[in-house]
């Protein structure tokens, strides 16, 4: 079965032109002017932007965390992602301390395989680096196609590793051709501040924010960057939120070190005033917390400076009932917010429409860089002959309002309720199949494939 997308305006990270795109099977086979339809199903893209499917490299689906599970499964989460124009996600496998990486991977495979609607890959979160774990790194990279290893410098007592483990992991991952990624905040300082606030009777969500000041992130970002420089390990900081942390990366560029940086859509669009709403603020309890308007400006500038390479979501949804676990103690509110479905449209509306970034930059940070940095390019992340036909048709003018009443994520509130957005995903194609058309998902659960990733990331 072939598809012919006619008369669209094709946008990649570098190009902008009118063309038709011919898809055969799962791939793009021709791009040109006035391509003949022959027996192909024709999709008219007149007036629409034709862009690569989005890639969100930071999502937590069905993840055991803080005494509960994130509320989107691989099925509901990838389906919601497709509705929002994201065709591939990278989810986090969490090693359980005292257990192997393989056990964790087996568990995640059993949840995602046969249920995911959209394509997915995995990062491996190393929460217990020891001799046995060290021996598994090569297997993960070579046999499983999992080439990025996530670390936590916070969540002390649960996920955090110390600098001894970090250094050992970096040395091994560098040796085997992978990358270390990090949640970079200082777990000890946060722990101290949390305990102090609670001991003095301050229990509301505001104190989640006040327990993670900018210095906790800036210090950890600098320490991680220095260790990556010392070990020579390819390095990536997830969900970077603030000026101090970005300056740590900026400093490293002076010695010609490259540390990849991801921010998330919430840190570009929301600020800490969300913590002034009493317990309702629990909707935005995430780590790191939302920051200041000056940090938003820094992050938008960082995108244009090429210091911030990716805009992800850190999608980690919890139902309101789950958020209520922390009603009397902010440290028990499950951390995370829902955004997997909103990222592409919000970034377009706040970024491109408001003239903060160009259309090419939009595709670069939402689609192409995630594919390049995480070893999926050029199969994913661009529109080119031979690439997977992961394509979105996007109306740049259509306005709509974000609401939990209409979203597809399995969560009973929206962090962006009532936001007016300009630009809407109209049609989504995943590996040659129409996945979403005018608000309807046409793919069955189980269509999503696990994407093995390459050992050496392309340079960007
Ligand atoms: O609050 C967050 N970010 N929840 C998900 C886990 C993580 O730290 O990424
Ligand atoms: Zn075990
Ligand atoms: Zn994190
Ligand atoms: Zn996360």
Automatic annotation (TrEMBL):
Protein name: Dihydropyrimidinase
UniProt entry keywords in alphabetical sequence: Hydrolase, Metal-binding
Cofactor annotation: Zn(2+)
Signal peptide residues on this chain, from the entry's feature table: none
Chain ranges of the Amidohydrolase-related domain: 49-434
Homology family: Belongs to the metallo-dependent hydrolases superfamily. Hydantoinase/dihydropyrimidinase family.
GO MF annotations, alphabetized: dihydropyrimidinase activity
A UniProt-annotated Pfam family: Amidohydro_1
Enzyme Commission no: 3.5.2.2
Gene of this entry: hydA
